[in-house]
Write a structure and sequence with these properties.
By secondary structure, the chain is α+β, with helices and mostly antiparallel strands. The chain is 38% helix and 27% strand. The protein is built from two helices and three strands; from the N terminus they run E-H-H-E-E. Strands 1-3-2 form a three-stranded antiparallel beta sheet. A hairpin with a 5-residue loop joins strand 2 and strand 3. It is globular, with a radius of gyration of 11 Å. The relative contact order is 0.22.
Length: 55
């Protein structure tokens, strides 16, 4: 999902077998620490990952 750059937080939650709240918290932390940049489409709440910092 993340490889495509676009996904829904609900899909991530299902894939990771966690709540959507947990995914939201995780994405917020990753974004705040500079690991990802994201934009959220207001129409369907899909998330587009713009960049990732090297692992």
């Amino acid at each position: 999902m993340i490889r495509t750059g676009i996904t829904l937080s609900t899909n991530l939650a299902q894939h990771l077998q966690v709540s959507t709240s947990a995914v939201s918290q995780l994405l917020n932390k990753l974004e705040n620490q500079g690991y990802i940049e994201r934009t959220i489409n207001p129409k369907n709440r899909s998330i587009k990952f713009k960049k990732s910092r090297g692992a």
